[in-house]
Amino acid sequence: MGPKEADVIIHEYIDYNCGGCFLANLYLHRIVMEFENVKVIQHKVPLERACNHNMQHEGHKNSCIKSKYALAAAKQNMYWQMSDILFEQSPENEKEII
What we know:
The chain is α+β, with helices and mostly antiparallel strands. The chain contains four helices and two strands. The chain has helices spanning 19-34, 63-74, 79-88, 94-97, and strands spanning 8-14, 38-44.
């Protein structure tokens, strides 16, 4: 999100089921809208054992599948639209994502 040749690049590490990540995402959208030289790069770090073997507990249910859908959307140049849907609508399962 933001211009390719931005002077300031912010790396955001997210889990789509993380409340703090949701709030940070809102603020970063606002920053990019207000400052034309800022770019945000999101890195998906699902906090769910199903795809993140560093997790000691089960973690956030369905985080892995949400991240996979975001990556698939990126291949169709629709990443930010899907990312917003995953944060704002907070689908509970794959059927709700589709």
